[in-house]
Write a structure and sequence with these properties.
Distance between the termini: 146 Å
Shape: elongated
Largest sheet: 5 strands, antiparallel
Length: about 200
């Protein structure tokens, strides 16, 4: 018959207390490890930003400037457009933590409203240094130019120094006010001859 060894002295007044202590130790086992302290708000957990998070932000486009800017465009003259290549900076709250987001344009898709599209990485420039333009071949009424800009982005959580890329790209789309494409027509009249007394 197997017997258990006890470190208690069975003699003396402290025997009962010693046995009680051993029984409690066997019943409860080792003391549990303390629970980890909860993370503080805005703490050091890794923040990951995706393009889906950016969709919730009000991202502005790169802007459209057209020359001429008025309500009519001559079909005999180049229709010049250009935009901005500047990086945009936004601040957002992701998982309760402030995050700085930078977006940089990488390509531009121009829709000139007459079925012609132009895709380029060049933002263009104003006349006379223009690099992006369109030649209308027919007249049009109340058409628009639409620009779709593709952006890549990166982010930096508050309290960190490293920038992290956001996988994928996002797009913004903007449209000009309406304009007419017109053709100039020269008429020969007798007025000039009459003024010359012919």
């Amino acid at each position: 018959m197997e017997t258990q060894q006890s470190s208690c002295d069975d003699r003396g007044a402290g025997a009962d207390a010693c046995r009680l202590g051993e029984l409690l130790a066997r019943a409860t086992g080792p003391a549990p490890a303390p629970a980890p302290a909860p993370a503080a708000p805005g703490g050091g957990g890794r923040v990951v930003v995706s393009v889906h998070d950016l969709a919730a932000l009000s991202l502005s486009g790169s802007g459209i400037t057209r020359q001429p800017p008025g309500p009519q465009v001559l079909s005999t003259k180049p229709f010049i457009v250009y935009t901005s290549s500047a990086t945009r900076t936004y601040t957002a709250q992701i998982l309760g933590r402030a995050v700085t987001i930078e977006t940089t344009p990488i390509s531009y898709l121009w829709d000139f409203g007459d079925g012609v599209y132009l895709s380029t990485t060049d933002p263009g420039a104003a006349w006379p240094d223009h690099t992006v333009w369109h030649d209308y071949t027919t007249t049009h009424t109340q058409i628009h130019t639409t620009l779709t800009t593709t952006w890549r982005a990166r982010y930096q959580p508050a309290g960190t120094s490293a920038w992290r890329p956001i996988p994928g790209t996002l797009t913004t789309t903007e449209t000009t006010t309406a304009y007419d494409v017109v053709r100039t027509i020269t008429y020969l009249t007798d007025d000039a001859e009459e003024q010359r007394e012919h």
